[in-house]
Each structure stands twice: as C-alpha cells, then as structure tokens.
Design goal:
Spore Coat Polysaccharide Biosynthesis Protein SpsA, Chain A; seven-stranded mixed β-sheet; 11 helices
C-alpha cells in the first residue's frame, strides 16, 4: 500500500491498485464537494514562520505523546484530522535553547506553562457552526460526546463552555442534548449554494447576541472528535492556528490584492490558515468576524476569486480578514496531525461519511483491516463508542 506522506503531500504517491480504500483529499471537508484537483505541494509559510522554523530546527518526529487530537470523520471516503498539542520537557533545537519562539514547530515557554496552572486560568469556549441537516446532526452528536469526555479528564481544565451555533434559523431535535444558539442564515440566494458562507455570518450574530463567559474561543467543526484534553494554545493577542498546506496566499497575489492592497503590507502578512482550528481571544474575533463575513461574500461574488479558491474560499477570507486587522497567528504544525492515506475510492474497506447524508452511520462500524494507520482505527473506534452510548442514535435525531 502506498500512503501520502504526512507533510507535505507527494502527488506521485497515489496508489493505482491500493487494496485499502481511504481518502483524505484535504482536511476539513465542511460539508463541501471536492471540486478541485489534488492539493499541490505545500506552499510557502509566511516569512516570519519560515525564518523561525529554520532557527528552531524542531520537528514532530521527536515529539512525545499527543495531548489532544480532534478527528474529522470522513471526507471523500474517510477524512480525519488530529489536532495535537505536543508537550516537551524542553524546547526543540538550538532556537528553543536560545529562548526563541518558533511559531511553526518549537514550543515557546508560555505554552509549557499553559499545560499547567496557566491553562486553568485561561479557559476557552468551544464553538462550532452547524445546520439542522441529518448529516450535520450526527457529526455534532459525536463531537459533543467526546468534548464532554475529555473536558472531564485531568488536563481538561481549559475546556470551558460549548455552543453549537445553528445557522438554520430555527430549533431542531438536538436543542436538549447540545448547548445551541440559533442564528439566522444569510438571506436567500446570498450564499450562492455555498453553505459554508453562513459560517462567518453565524459567528457575527453569536458574538453580538450571546453571553460568552470565557475570554477565548476555539472555533471547531462538527466533524472533529476530541481524543485527549486540550490546553489553551493562544497567547493573549496571538491566536493559535494550524497552517494548511493548500492555503497559499503568495501563489495568488493578484487575487489577494483585490482584498489586501499593497499599502496594507506584503502578502506574507496573510497566514496560511482557515478559521478552524483556531483558538483566539474573543475581543479579537469580535473585530475580525464582520470583516471575515464581508470578505467572504465579496470573494464569492467575484468570478475569478470564486473559481480560483473554490471550496476553500471562506478559509482564505478568514486569513485575509485577520491580516486586515493586523492579527497574525501562532502557526502550529503540531496542532493537527494529518494521517497518511491514499486517494483510492474502491478497496477492501470503505467508510464515506457522505454516504450518511440522510442519517447516522450504523452502530459498531467494522474496523479497518491490519496495516491501516492507527489514527484511522482510532477514528472508527471513537465513532463506535459514541454511537453505542448516545440515546436514539438510530433515530437520527
């Protein structure tokens, strides 16, 4: 079996006759169709991140056990994400020894503190946007189940409240099970069939109307699964985010300049991120969210931008909006671990979350055969445990 290397992807690693049918076209599917070609080689990080990475010299290969992971259940055939904070006894490489902060690889001193007493003083609120579709509901149920499990464990002190921001405009059958805040969708036709365009508008409404006790917010998604407790990775006005290899602002400078003019600064100011996973101070998100919404709509209504960015358009919009407000993120490659998968569609074992658009997957899914990465096995086991313990699972509430 051939697998796609963890980071960056290798376009030549596709196995034509792979017996195991697994797929990770990108990372967070977010209920979108895969309409673009295979992700290209990892783009450039911003200049500061590259410089810091070179100085730090640390790598994930030397990191010990995960402190947290989130798994996204199924993309094409199976899509999963691991969000992970790696706690080291010390820094990584010469840069860390010298006390330098490496925003991509090495661990700054404040983050080590965040794993202990500091994390308990800085709880974050978990917020995910969702629709009332059956496809979204069963993923939210699994996500919330594991949030509660991990919050109750030692090390889960920073995991504060939880809100499903429901942008369908009306209550659904999960109101009594999952803390939910109902907001309005965009006006009819404004999303142009791109449901994710409702996400920034949902956050704008939630931030304006809801009472949020925590100072920080983790923007998450329905297809995430916590597998270990998560400390607060943000540092005051420096949000923490995962750098996506397929978000490459420098490769699209002509388009980016429509929304981030030269007088604002270099294109490298724009982080290679989306809005999730991000841990950010609430006051910062309150400033960014309206701009994120406006930029998203402008991008969608511009034919060239829409065609170029496709299903990741809203991710670019968040990155641009953050830069417009002078906010740059701590880029953490060890925030999320991408498993090694093929792009095969037919094989010995298959799980496609989009096969369950109209209801949840059956209980007790068959585990992958031997040889499949352990992260995939973990994903299926987590879904199975949740479905075994959640009431009325088969009813698809």
């Amino acid at each position: 079996m051939n697998y796609i290397p963890r980071f960056p992807p290798n376009p030549n690693s596709h196995a034509k006759n792979s017996r195991i049918s697994l797929s990770l076209p990108l990372l967070l599917e977010r209920e979108r169709e895969r309409e673009r070609e295979r992700p290209r080689e990892a783009g450039e990080m911003n200049a500061a991140a590259r410089k810091a990475a070179a100085a730090g010299g640390g790598g994930m290969g030397r990191a010990p056990a995960l402190v947290l992971a989130l798994v996204a259940a199924g993309a094409f055939l199976i899509s999963y994400n691991f969000f992970a904070m790696l706690l080291r006894g010390g820094g990584a490489g010469a840069g860390a020894a010298a006390g330098a902060r490496d925003p991509v690889v090495a661990m700054p001193a404040w983050m080590r503190e965040a794993a202990g007493r500091e994390a308990r003083r800085r709880p974050f609120h978990v917020a995910l946007t969702a629709t009332d579709a059956a496809y979204s509901r069963w993923q939210c149920r699994v996500m919330y189940y594991w949030y509660k499990r991990m919050q109750a464990q030692p090390g889960g002190e920073a995991m504060g409240g939880f809100t499903r921001v429901l942008h369908s405009g009306k209550p659904d059958g999960l109101m009594d099970e999952i803390p939910t805040f109902v907001v309005d969708p965009l006006p009819a036709g404004k999303d142009h069939g791109y449901v994710v365009l409702n996400r920034p508008w949902a956050f704008v409404q939630w931030l304006q109307k809801a009472k949020i006790e925590e100072e920080y917010i983790l923007m998450a998604e329905p297809d995430h699964i916590f597998v270990k407790p998560l400390p607060n990775l943000a540092n005051d006005n420096e949000p923490a985010a995962f750098p996506f290899f397929y978000i490459t602002p420098s490769e699209h400078e002509k388009i980016i300049r429509k929304y981030y003019p030269k007088e604002r600064g270099p294109v490298t100011d724009i982080d290679p991120i989306g809005n999730s996973p991000v841990i950010i101070k609430k006051t910062l998100l309150e400033k960014i969210a309206p701009t994120w919404m406006n930029v998203s709509i402008q991008m969608k209504e511009d034919e060239e931008t829409d065609k170029t960015f496709g299903w990741v358009l809203e991710m670019y919009a968040y990155a641009v909006a953050s830069a417009l407000h002078g906010v740059q993120h701590i880029l953490r490659k060890d925030f999320m671990i991408q498993g090694e998968l093929t792009y095969g569609k037919i094989g010995e074992w298959r799980f496609d979350k989009r096969s369950f658009q109209n209801g949840p997957p059956p209980r007790n899914l068959t585990l992958p055969p031997p040889g499949v990465p352990e992260s995939v096995v973990t994903l299926v086991k987590k879904v199975n445990e949740a479905s075994a313990n959640l009431p009325r699972w088969d009813d698809g509430i």
